[in-house]
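Progress note, sequence design subtask.
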């Protein structure tokens, strides 16, 4: 089955994933972009996936429908899911790009509830907007809600932009508080580094003595980053390697199954389905297993079930392959018929004078064209590239 692990719907793409864990199941709500307004109309609803092992997904269908062109939530954008008692709550972004020209805010925080995670009722009277005195009115999105036991109230983090400051660096992680999930007071920002245009899709959790704040850098790079702190008041520190995965792993948010933590984001498609095409918004689901290193920093790796899935059948096995590449570039041809998705495992030992070693996949020897995974000893990098570039 195509996209069994890297899920993408047949009639569109996956954008921002909103994860939740309940009854031993991952429930992944996501922004469904049909990319076909002529047939499906404008706007993005939330759709719902469920999975027990992250190697196969059940498509549960539409969860939150989009509104009309006259409604605040023509685009049902990113938010979060929280359970209080027996009721599930979704807080989400209502986005309507047509409102700006009429002097209305493009974005607002909106609320919906459910008893079963499948049928949701919107509560329009709970909608609220950015305070005009301190924040840009069109950037008030991606609400992340959690219960703060230390304060005995609910916190909501938002991707927002301050009114004052350098125009390209007014991004902040806004903070709102509530006792009842209906009335919210806007506090001072949780984090305001004056560094990004905005930081999207905030996510916060604690492991041991460290708090972690995940965000996505709103730029042409599409990177998910994080900061860490001993206290919710900060300071929020940048680890040596502050990004997850590589370029274009975006809008990632995390969830715990009670024992371990997992990170879900998307990897974009490219225009025309070509390597030279422009990066697009939305693409395939990507899941990672997060873990805490000894120094408190975070790392990510494939979930064990995904590794086991790829270990079911060995396509090739060899004790050792020796390549004499001193003074030149050398290849050893392995004529394998590889499936669409596969896992490569190997140990590489390089002579002190060799600068690069790796494997080339989908290589057309007639035109010398293929994809390269390489260890570059001169730069201390692991890289993925195309040859020739």
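Output:
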């Amino acid at each position: 089955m195509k996209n069994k692990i890297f899920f993408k719907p047949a009639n569109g793409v996956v954008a921002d994933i909103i994860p939740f864990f309940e009854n031993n199941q991952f429930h992944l709500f996501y922004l469904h972009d049909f990319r076909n307004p002529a047939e499906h109309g404008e706007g993005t609803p939330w759709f719902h996936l469920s999975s027990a092992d992250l190697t196969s997904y059940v498509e549960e269908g539409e969860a939150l429908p989009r509104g009309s062109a006259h409604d605040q939530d023509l685009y049902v954008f990113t938010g979060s899911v929280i359970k209080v008692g027996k009721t599930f709550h979704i807080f989400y972004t209502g986005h309507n790009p047509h409102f700006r020209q009429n002097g209305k805010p493009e974005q607002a925080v909106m609320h919906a509830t459910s008893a079963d995670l499948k049928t949701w009722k919107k509560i329009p009277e709970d909608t609220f907007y950015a305070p005009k005195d301190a924040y840009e009115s069109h950037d008030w999105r991606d609400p992340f809600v959690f219960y703060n036991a230390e304060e005995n109230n609910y916190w909501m983090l938002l991707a927002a932009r301050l009114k004052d400051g350098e125009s390209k660096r007014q991004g902040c992680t806004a903070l709102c508080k509530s006792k009842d999930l209906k009335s919210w007071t806007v506090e001072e920002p949780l984090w305001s580094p004056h560094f990004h245009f905005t930081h999207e899709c905030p996510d916060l959790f604690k492991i041991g003595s460290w708090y972690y704040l995940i965000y996505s850098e709103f730029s042409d790079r599409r990177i998910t980053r994080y900061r860490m702190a001993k206290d919710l008041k900060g300071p929020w520190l940048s680890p040596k390697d502050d990004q997850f995965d590589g370029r274009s792993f975006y809008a990632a948010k995390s969830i715990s199954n009670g024992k371990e933590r997992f990170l879900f984001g998307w990897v974009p498609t490219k225009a025309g389905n070509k390597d030279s095409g422009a990066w697009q918004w939305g693409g395939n689901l990507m899941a990672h297993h997060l873990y805490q290193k000894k120094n408190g920093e975070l790392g990510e790796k494939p979930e064990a079930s995904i590794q086991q899935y790829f270990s079911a059948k060995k396509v090739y096995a060899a004790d050792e392959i020796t390549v004499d590449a001193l003074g030149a570039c050398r290849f050893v041809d392995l004529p394998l018929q590889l499936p669409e998705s596969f896992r490569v495992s190997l140990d590489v030992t390089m002579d002190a004078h060799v600068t690069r070693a790796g494997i080339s996949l989908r290589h057309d020897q007639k035109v010398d064209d293929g994809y390269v995974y390489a260890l570059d000893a001169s730069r201390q990098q692991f890289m993925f590239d195309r040859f020739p570039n």
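The first strand starts at residue 13 and ends at 22. Work on this subtask will continue into the next period as scheduled.
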